[in-house]
Write a structure and sequence with these properties.
By secondary structure, this protein is an alpha+beta fold. The strands form 5 sheets. It has a 7-stranded mixed beta sheet, with helices on one face. The longest helix is centred in the C-terminal third of the chain and has 15 residues. The protein has a single domain, classed as Ribonuclease Z/Hydroxyacylglutathione hydrolase-like (Metallo-beta-lactamase, Chain A, 4-Layer Sandwich), CATH 3.60.15. 21% of the residues lie in helices and 25% in strands. Bound molecules: zinc ion (2 copies). One zinc ion binds next to helix 2. InterPro entries: Metallo-B-lactamas (IPR001279), RibonucZ/Hydroxyglut_hydro (IPR036866). This is Metallo-beta-lactamase domain-containing protein.
């Protein structure tokens, strides 16, 4: 058997292990710096002890490990235990045309990479917005996969790399039955992913916190800033509604473990927007 028949060995690079990661938002940068632009922005905050930095090496040495758990049909949650920074989990969408990693986390180690490789690896990565960039460039390099980022959020990318594919416009197909939609709530480049051919055949939307699945999991909300409670603008929400309206979906996968709307997702988005706009006086 030639070496090309074996699954490739996926290992985190030495640079990836040592480049700085913001302890509060989990975004990795291309080199040492004093501040984290993502956290200085009014949608986030600098940690109460001041700006702190970590590396993947520190996280691994501190006992962090990867966590995988099914979050729905054909969808595996990918995170760290204990969680890193904001605490979101990514999602491995197991499509017949190749797995897509939706969103990212501020963590990766060789064991986690090997477990993902056993599930078929990653053909492409797509991210919702800067708070969930994590160590996406390292994930892209380890799996030799493009990372789709909306061009409107280009300046937020902490570790630029040729593998990052900046897309523009309202929608962008990345695989059969998989479409990125620039909903634009929370961030100008805020992206959700529609999967038409999920195993149940009902459609699924992956929303990060662009449409935030809330504690009552029949609903979502739309926030400009979640930690600082700044509401989103009605005109921006109406544009997002128009863009997702043509897409059918039952499930909505939000940003955190278990935050999943399991039925009538399209109706949930519509009703949630109507409720929101009623409360802000429109
Ligand atoms: Zn930060
Ligand atoms: Zn966010």
């Amino acid at each position: 058997m030639s070496s090309s028949d074996a699954a490739p060995r996926r290992t985190v690079s030495t640079a990836g292990l040592r480049l700085p990661i913001c302890a509060t938002c989990g975004v990795q940068y291309a080199g040492p710096r004093d501040d984290c632009p993502v956290c200085l922005d009014e949608r986030q905050y600098v940690g109460w002890e001041g700006q702190q930095w970590l590396t993947l090496e520190d996280l691994r040495a501190g006992g962090r490990h990867g966590r995988l758990r099914e979050e729905g049909p054909g969808v595996v949650g990918v995170g760290a235990e204990p969680s890193v920074a904001v605490g979101q989990r990514a999602l491995l969408i197991r499509a017949p045309s190749g797995n897509v990693l939706w969103d990212c986390v501020g963590y990766l180690d060789d064991d986690l990479a090997a477990r993902i490789e056993e599930l078929g690896g990653i053909s492409a990565i797509a991210v919702s917005h800067p708070h969930f960039y994590g160590v996406m460039t390292e994930w892209g390099r380890v799996f030799d996969a493009p990372v789709y980022v909306h061009a409107a959020d280009r300046d937020w990318v902490g570790r630029p790399d040729p593998l990052i594919e900046y897309w523009s416009g309202d929608t962008h197909p990345i695989a059969p039955g998989m479409t990125l939609i620039n909903a634009g709530t929370h961030f100008a480049g805020g992206t959700v992913l529609h999967w038409a051919s999920d195993p149940e055949g009902r459609g699924a939307l992956f929303s990060g916190d662009i449409f935030m699945v809330v504690m009552d999991r029949r609903w979502v909300s739309f926030m400009y800033s979640i930690p600082n409670y700044i509401p989103e603008r009605p005109s921006t929400i109406r544009r997002a509604l128009d863009l997702v309206e043509p897409f059918a979906f039952d499930r909505i996968y939000g940003a955190f473990w278990g935050r999943v709307v399991t039925e009538d997702g399209a109706g949930a988005v519509r009703r949630s927007a109507e409720r929101y706009l009623r409360f802000v006086g429109e």
